[in-house]
Amino acid sequence: MEFERKSQRLAKGINAGVHYEALDLCRVRKFGGSTGKFGWGGWCKPLSEIDFGHRPWFPMSGWPVTRGELQPYYIKALDTLQLPSSFSFDTSQAEIKAQADRLDLAGSPITVEESLLAPSTGHCLSDAAGEIRSAENILVLLHAAATEIMADSVTRRATGVRGRSLSGRPFSVTAQWIVLAAGGIENPRLMLQSTRNYPKGIGNEHDLVGRCFMENPRFHWGRLTGEDLPSVIRQFYPANAVRRRLSHAVPGQAVGGLGFTVRPEIQHNEQLLNARTWIYPAPAASEGDGGRELRESIFWLKKSRMPDAPIRRAVNIALDLPNAIKTTISYLRPSKHWEFVTVMEQEPILKSRVTLDTRRDALGLRAARLEWHLGPHVERTLRRNQELLVETLSKLGVTCSAKMPRARKSEIELVRWVWHHMGTTRMSDDPTQGVVDRDCRVHDFENLYVAGSSVFPTGGNDMPTLTIVALAHRLADHLKQQLMICQNPSAIKTSSYAGSIGSGALEESGVSMVQHT
Question: Rounded distance, CA 437 to CA 431, Å?
Answer without folding.
Answer: 8
